[in-house]
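Q: Predict the assembly, please.
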Amino acid sequence: MLRIDGVYRPKTLPEALDVFTENPRLRPILGGTDVLVQLTDSGKHASLLDLSLLAELKGIRRDGQYLWIGSAETHTAISESPLIMECAPLVAKSSSIMGSPAIRNRATIGGNVANASPVAESLPTLIAHGAEIVLISPSGKRTMPVVDFHLGPGKSAIGDSEIITGFSIPVVSENFVGFYERLGSRAAVSIAKVGVALAANMYGNRFSEVRIALSAVAPRVIRSPKTERLLETHPLERNLIEEATPVLIAECTPITDFRSTREYRADMVGQLFRMGMNKILNR
Amino acid sequence: MAVGKRVIRVDARAKADGSAKYVADMSMPGMLVGRVLHSPVARGRITNLDIDSARKIAGVRAVVTAEDIPGGNICHIVIDDMPLLANGEVKYTGEPIALVAAESRSAVEDALEAMNLQIEQLPPLTDPEKYADPDSPRLSGKDNIFAHHKIRRGKTDVAFGKADIVIERTYRTTYQEHAYLETQGMLAVPTQEGGIDIYGSMQCPFYVHGAVATVCGLPQSKVRIIQTTTGGAFGGKEDVPSLVAGWAAVLALKANRPVKLILDRSEDIISMSKRHPSRTHIKLGADKKGKLVAAEVDILFDAGAYATLSSVVLWRGTVHACGPYRIPAVKIDARAVATNKVPCGAYRGFGSPQTLFAIESAIDELAYKLDIDPVEFRRINILKKGDKTVTGQKIRSSCGLEECLERAVQASDFINLRKKLHSEDSPVKRGLGISTIFYGMGLGAGGTKLARTGAYVSIQPDGSVQFAVGTTEMGQGMRTVLGQIVAEAFGIPFEKVSCLPVDTSRVPDSGPTVASRATTMSGRALLQACTHLKRNLAKVAAAEWGTKDRIVNIAAGKAIRTDNPDITIPWNELAAIAFDKKAELTVVAHDSSPPTSWNPETGQGDAYVVYSWCANIAQVAVDTRTGEVRLEKLWAAHDIGKAINPTLVEGQIEGGSVQGMGYGLTEEYIIDENGIPLNPKLSFYYIPTTEDAPTIEPIIVESAYDKGPFGAKGFGEQPLMGIAPAIANAIFDAVKIRFREQPFTPEKVWPELKGLDNED
Ligand SMILES: Cc1cc2nc3c(=O)[nH]c(=O)nc-3n(C[C@H](O)[C@H](O)[C@H](O)COP(=O)(O)OP(=O)(O)OC[C@H]3O[C@@H](n4cnc5c(N)ncnc54)[C@H](O)[C@@H]3O)c2cc1C
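A: Predicted assembly structure:
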């Protein structure tokens, strides 16, 4: 049962930080699609800090070589933004396939990342794009790579009374290639069983600046440095894909649970990687 | 004329715009919130339950345990073995132990916690195949068997000797959760005269009526059940609403206040009924020409902790276990056994999807063994008019299976399409699978006592007509279809007719709304009532004309003189005159279903009054890289006697087929070896979404049933029943791998595919 004792609805970021500092146990909420489910399941008492009125957390814009996405932007807004499709296409894609239309209309990218699930849709694509997360607290603003922010299931580097304001993403170059492939248990409204995101620049048949991010195959969304290096140091051809697949699989540590098996997940990392790579090869 | 028309459902607008009132939308002055304390373990003895502390929580108005039940602590279904509340011991995770009603939900939760339930755990029996192990606990009787049904026809040992090919295979099916949109819920309101009114979501108001009277210790005359708009049921609201209503009722009596008790989704999934898991072993033999000669089938159903409906569910599974085929020698043994798991019950198809999955897969396997095309093999063996079923019942009429098969084959262009699919060069392999099935309409010989219906029809002075029946609307469109039947009977426009809510005090016991029986059986009672009223109207018209009743015909919405059809009285005028003359314009009719017969020793008899028939052709795509199976297209031909409303028939075909697809592909409810459910959430129990739905081509076949209203026979369950085997057969067609255990999830399919060509 949901037991909400109170809701604070600050109108500005400074006000929000004040309230949060005074009440560090408040639970921030944006779309509520994770928070409300979790509180209903646990039955625990909670007071909420509703951040949805803060203009500072909104906005999708380009600042020079960086794309800014405010944490309160919904997956619908992100998946429909021509700017994001152009500057960080994988982020648009992950937002377009998460949940259902109703969920996408409420759920935000900030909530998705803060929730720190190893299956979170936006994490692998933000990480593949080399995104940084911007956080603010009464002691100031700080920035870190999204890949360092996610620490484990439900665990992140967020500090006390800290609020995610948004994400700063390097705009892709004209040589960008990439993919985000994922498997669910049905066509929609299905948490990822395995996800593979790859972003890189491609010059002729040579990769550079490869970033691969894998979801649902380790306690947190991980990069795969060995595979990335292999791709960066060899020309793209069918052989390379075959050579790289086992290397990639060896970099993850999937588990067996009631949703899937370790063997299946591991093999699917390879299959999704192959599917994505073949698209690049045949492009 | 209304029958055969695509009339829009009377409940469509309110359900679409959100104005329909479900029990959750209802409220009463002084209404309390009721909730249930459930067992967190599968088997054990209750060692602590602190009622006093719970009662002391502010706002708590009633706490009820087994000891406080005013009547019998029994939820009557078939055998009286299931208590309303556990008494000392628990037998499954989710078993109800105590009830609380309070002014607020949070007071209730605090009281449930304050009870500090402690249970000394005992080792549970969770594997049904171990029901007879000496080490397994005895949960029911001496042998853990709730029911054993048999069919004996001819001598199978002799017949197998004559077979050229015999296969023996084992098939397994797992749980299916109903996942109705609206969870179980009831509102109980004590009346001034010491009785109780119940409003709620249900399929079978008369079951609830009996159950509530029993637990409350009240005469049945003081109990009234009113069905509220019901948000889906699928069998899941056949028997368990009796429990939920019983809980709400005893709380309301104890608090002497209205109590609303609605289950949370997870609570509902954990503690309410499911489709029985099953294991079916089949030995099937045929001669070289492809004629089936003998079948032996051994069936085991995992019933869970209490008998509930298992005996009758198993009976239907038994009667359908050999499919719609002519087999001269048959031996079937079917058992439903006890385990420390949630009691299973009714679910669309009622025991037949399990056994049909087995036989339809086995038929396919045997066809391939004989090197006969699976369609051809069915042509040779399916039941036709004049044939006998394996229970020895002669199919006298209304047998449209052959037409279903041929029309599905034609519509799909089966032979050419199959060739085309097989010639595709892709890591995604496609194939076609077929299933031919049948459905015994109504309760049949397994439920003769319940096989009755009543109907109330009242012609108003303005010529509009009100009617009420004792069967329920749960989304299948019954209110609309029955309205069409009434309109057609009088020959008046559909808009003149309206259906009242179901209220047990208005209509005689009409049995349960199950077994696809409502259109046919309530339709029969309504037609009786209409015939009676037409006779009364004829008298009125005859008196007006000063002639004999005999020469008056009530048809096409008027009274007509048969000796001079130009002389008529239009409907509204006729109703007004009849009212003035104080004619009897309100009648209650009683109908008893046509007879059936059954010999429990031999399993021979006329099991059902009539059968519906169906052929499905499924096109699947198997992604050999990921093991994902997609049902892409489905041709579903159903012989339903008469489509009173073709749109609603198509709706049933589409909805049922998608539900059957979920059963075949994604739905997997897992209870671990300790009896603990692992995924009682809709986020991890995957019912199909609209995005998963295949393209469905419904094909309606009308082979009239002479005792049904305008030829109609029921079929609401049938669309689900044959989908899982059609998918399994199509997967085999695509990749030559046989899956004998549903659901066919990628995790199961992928390991079998390894070794196949995986290249793009
Ligand atoms: C039916 C359904 C389907 C779903 N499908 C998917 C799916 O396919 N893929 C997927 O990845 N997820 C899915 N989700 C999960 C969820 O929708 C997403 O994680 C979503 O992006 C969360 O966003 P929100 O705005 O609703 O977050 P909220 O629930 O409001 O918050 C989530 C967490 O973030 C914290 N938080 C929120 N905003 C901030 C902030 N600015 N600063 C610091 N902390 C903050 C909250 O305290 C909370 O811990 C699904 C959920 C549902 C109910």
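The domain at 55-170 of chain A is CATH 3.30.465.10 (Uridine Diphospho-n-acetylenolpyruvylglucosamine Reductase; domain 3). Residues A 27-35, 37, 51, 57, 71, 98-99, 103, 106-108, 110-112, 114-115, 120-121, 163-164, 189, 191 surround flavin-adenine dinucleotide (CB under 6 Å).
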